[in-house]
C-alpha cells in the first residue's frame, strides 16, 4: 500500500493547533515548512501569502501569551496589595484598641 500525503488543509489545521501553545512553536514551524514546500512547488505566490499569514499567527499567539502572563502578574500584585491592606487595617484596629 502506498501512503498518500496528508491533505494540505489537514496539515494547516495541525500547524494551527500546534501554534496555540508557544512551547510547541518550533514543531509548528517545522510542520508549516513542510506544508509550505508542498504548496510552493505548485503555487509560489500562495506559499508567499501563507508565509505572511503564518508569521502573523505566530506573532499573535506570542502576543496573547505575553498579555496573559502580564494579566497573571497584575492579578497576583492586586491580591498581595489587598492582603497588605487587610493586614494594615487589622494593625490599625489593634493599635486603636490599645490606646
UniProtKB/TrEMBL annotation:
What is the native source organism of this protein? Chroogloeocystis siderophila 5.2 s.c.1
Tell me what this protein is called.
Uncharacterized protein
Amino acid at each position: 500500500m502506498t501512503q498518500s500525503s496528508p491533505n494540505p488543509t489537514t496539515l494547516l489545521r495541525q500547524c494551527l493547533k500546534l501554534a496555540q501553545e508557544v512551547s510547541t512553536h518550533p514543531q509548528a514551524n517545522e510542520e508549516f515548512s513542510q506544508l509550505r514546500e508542498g504548496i510552493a512547488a505548485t503555487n509560489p505566490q500562495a506559499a508567499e501569502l501563507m508565509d505572511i499569514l503564518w508569521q502573523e499567527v505566530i506573532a499573535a499567539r506570542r502576543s496573547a501569551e505575553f498579555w496573559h502572563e502580564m494579566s497573571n502578574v497584575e492579578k497576583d500584585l492586586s491580591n498581595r496589595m489587598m492582603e497588605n491592606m487587610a493586614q494594615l487595617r487589622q494593625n490599625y484596629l489593634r493599635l486603636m484598641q490599645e490606646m
